[in-house]
C-alpha cells in the first residue's frame, strides 16, 4: 500500500511489476547519464575560451552523435517490447474472473465456478477510503486472467502493486493477466473519473496460498 512519504513504486507483488520496476531503473540510469553529459557540455561551453570558427565539419563527430542515440534507443526498446508482450500474454490461465464496474462499486464473478459472484463496496474502517466489505481473493503463483467491463460509465480497475491497470468500458470486454508472486493484501482504486463518488470505489485483492483459496471457494459454494 502506498504511503505519504513513498516517492517510488510500491513493492511489486507480481512478476510483470518486477519487470516494469527493473525497466524503470534501467531507463532512469540512462536518462541520468545523458543529463549529466549535457549539463557538462553546457557548462564547458559557457566557461571555455576556445573558438572554432574555422571548423566547418567533422565527419567522425557527426557519425557519433547520430549513431549513439540510435544505439541507446535500441537498448531501451527491446526490454520495453518484451514487457508489453508479457503483459498481453494470456496462455493457459489457472483461473478466469470477470470484473464489472458500477457507479460506484465493483462486482466480481469467478467464471470457473458456479454461483460465485459478489459485489464489493467501500466501508469505513482503519484504512481510509481503501477498505471494502468483500475482498477479491486469488491464489498465489497462479496465472490469473481478468475480463473487465462496465455496466454504466468508464472505470479503470487498477492495483499498482500487481502492475495491473485495465479500462472498464461499457459494451467492451477487456482482458489482462498476471501472476502474483507473494502473499498479502493489496489495494487499488478506480483510475478513471466516473462521477461524483469516483474516489469511493476502492479495490482490495487478497492473495492467499492454494490451500486457503480452496477453503474459501468451498465456503462460497
From TrEMBL:
Co-factor binding comment: Binds a copper A center.
Record InterPro entries: CcO_II, CcO_II-like_C, CcO_II_C, Copper_CuA, Cupredoxin, Cyt_c_oxidase_su2, Cyt_c_oxidase_su2_TM_dom, Cyt_c_oxidase_su2_TM_sf
Keywords of the record: Copper, Electron transport, Magnesium, Membrane, Metal-binding, Mitochondrion, Mitochondrion inner membrane, Respiratory chain, Translocase, Transmembrane, Transmembrane helix, Transport
A Pfam cross-reference name: COX2_TM
GO molecular function: copper ion binding; cytochrome-c oxidase activity; oxidoreductase activity
Record's catalysed reaction(s): 4 Fe(II)-[cytochrome c] + O2 + 8 H(+)(in) = 4 Fe(III)-[cytochrome c] + 2 H2O + 4 H(+)(out)
Protein topology in the membrane: Multi-pass membrane protein
GO biological process, any: ATP synthesis coupled electron transport
Keyword Transmembrane helix listed: yes
Membrane spanning residue stretches: 21-51, 63-85
Cellular location(s): Mitochondrion inner membrane
Domain Cytochrome oxidase subunit II transmembrane region profile: 1-91
Domain Cytochrome oxidase subunit II copper A binding: 92-219
Cofactor: Cu cation
Assembly and interaction partners: Component of the cytochrome c oxidase (complex IV, CIV), a multisubunit enzyme composed of a catalytic core of 3 subunits and several supernumerary subunits. The complex exists as a monomer or a dimer and forms supercomplexes (SCs) in the inner mitochondrial membrane with ubiquinol-cytochrome c oxidoreductase (cytochrome b-c1 complex, complex III, CIII).
Family membership: Belongs to the cytochrome c oxidase subunit 2 family.
Its biological purpose: Component of the cytochrome c oxidase, the last enzyme in the mitochondrial electron transport chain which drives oxidative phosphorylation. The respiratory chain contains 3 multisubunit complexes succinate dehydrogenase (complex II, CII), ubiquinol-cytochrome c oxidoreductase (cytochrome b-c1 complex, complex III, CIII) and cytochrome c oxidase (complex IV, CIV), that cooperate to transfer electrons derived from NADH and succinate to molecular oxygen, creating an electrochemical gradient over the inner membrane that drives transmembrane transport and the ATP synthase.
Name of this protein: Cytochrome c oxidase subunit 2
Record organism: Aleurocanthus camelliae (Camellia spiny whitefly)
Name of the gene this protein is made from: COX2
